[in-house]
Amino acid sequence: MALDNFQTSRLQAVNIILSNIGQAPVTTLRSGNVQAEMAENLLDEITKAVQSEGWVFNTEVDYPIVPNSNKHCILPPNVLTWDGVEYNRADLIIRDGKLYDKRLHTFEFERTLYVNVVWYFQFVDLPEAFRNYITIRAANVFAGRTVGSSEAVRFGQQEESVARATCLEFETQQGDYTFFGDRAGRTTYQSYLPYQAVTRSIWQR
Questions:
Q1: How far apart are CA 195 and CA 87, in angstroms?
Q2: In this prediction, what percent of the chain has a pLDDT beyond 70?
Q3: Is 56 within 8 Å of 174 (Cβ atoms)?
Q4: How confident is the model at residue 186 (pLDDT cuts 50, 70, 90)?
Q5: Where are the domains of the chain?
Q6: Contact yes or no for 109/134 (Cβ under 8 A)
Q7: Residues 71-103: pLDDT tens digits?
Q8: Which residues are within 8 A (CB) of 182 and not within 5 positions of it... i.e. 6 or more apart?
Q9: Under 8 Å between Cβ of 18 and 25
């Protein structure tokens, strides 16, 4: 069976959101159902909000921004948040959709700039733990906005907390964080791995 069959699709997410207020599922995202369209729009809203927090799967450090033919540095359109790194020797902000150096008062750059970025990805490109969390969170928000059901929201809060905990578990496992990480969030020290102790004991014989 294909892996996609085990991962939450946009249609499945929308139907979960609808079910939270007792609405019947739809068979397609282009059904013309007003409630389904609202649910899909909310799914996109929550998808962006969750990713804006910055997680290991959508955060990239020292991403190069190469000047174009006009010497302008333009961030890709799916960048949610960004921060310039110190060694650019420039005080960077976004102005008119381009990077601008407040120190030298210019849009023009002669060399590549480096920034830490948080990317936006489509729902179907997210890890399954985040698809699940976003769907549950969207379902709770949808219930509160459409029918004002505080009971449905309270019922889903525990499920939402568990789903977020799963995302945090994914974050810690994939991030391999230690106290020895640098300021950019990269790990500079490899923590203890049990199999290494076995390897050392064999070589010491």
A1: 38
A2: 80
A3: yes
A4: low
A5: 3-54+127-175, 59-119
A6: no
A7: 999 999 999 999 998 888 899 999 988 999 999
A8: 188
A9: yes
Query: Do 92 and 84 contact (CB within 8 A), yes or no?
Result: yes
pTM for the structure as a whole = 0.81
Structure tokens at 54: 């910055």
* Per-residue pLDDT tens over the stretch 95-125: 988 999 999 999 999 999 999 999 999 999 9
